[in-house]
Amino acid sequence: MNNIINKTMKMNKTATKLKPGMTLIEITVVILVLLTLIAVLFIGANIYKKGANRAACILNIRNIHQAVRADQNLNKKNTSDALVRTVIMGDSEAYIENEPTCPADGGAYGLVGTYPLTGVVAATCTNSGAAGTSGVTDHLPDVNDTQGW
User: Which of 45, 56, 89, 141 has the most neighbouring CB atoms within 10 Å?
Assistant: First the structure.
């Protein structure tokens, strides 16, 4: 009888030694995978924001250009006539009442000195050309997109 009790006790001891759960290495691997996924998410969000800022900036440039064309057509201006900023934007009587700013860094838009020819952009962003404060260099519309402007 003692022999049977000893065998039962040994079986129970082995069964209680196995505990469910994760090891420290498994937990570390799970945390590393989660951190990697979060890092990829932040990189993707940053790229998305830069693209959205570029699109909004080009839309602002197009709106300014349409205001310049409207003024040129309504007042029968020639391409050599001087372009006055307050007639186009930033005044209560202007085509664009509130002067738009670049979404990337809040910079102002520059206007060309005279009414431009068809296909020439009338406004430029502070982030166009050389890298601005935000490091963005592509805030101008593509030349092929401005043929009808």
Answer: 89
**pLDDT band, residue 105 (cuts 50/70/90):** confident
In the chain, where the domains are located? 28-146
Q: Greatest CA span in the chain, whole angstroms?
A: 117
CA proximity to 111, closest of 91, 89, 132, 133: 89
Q: How far apart are CA 129 and CA 141, in angstroms?
A: 12
Decide which of 8 and 109 is more confident.
Answer: 109
Which pLDDT band holds residue 106 (cuts at 50, 70, 90)? confident
Per-residue pLDDT at 14? 53
Q: Is the CB of residue 117 less than 8 Å from the CB of residue 79?
A: yes
Least confident of 27-31, 38-42, 142-146: 142-146
Q: Which of 45, 71, 29, 58 is nearest to 123 (CA)?
A: 58
Strand partners, 101: 108
C-alpha distance across the termini of the chain, in Å: 102
- Classify residue 89 by burial, with Cβ atoms within 10 Å: 0-12, 13-18, 19+: buried
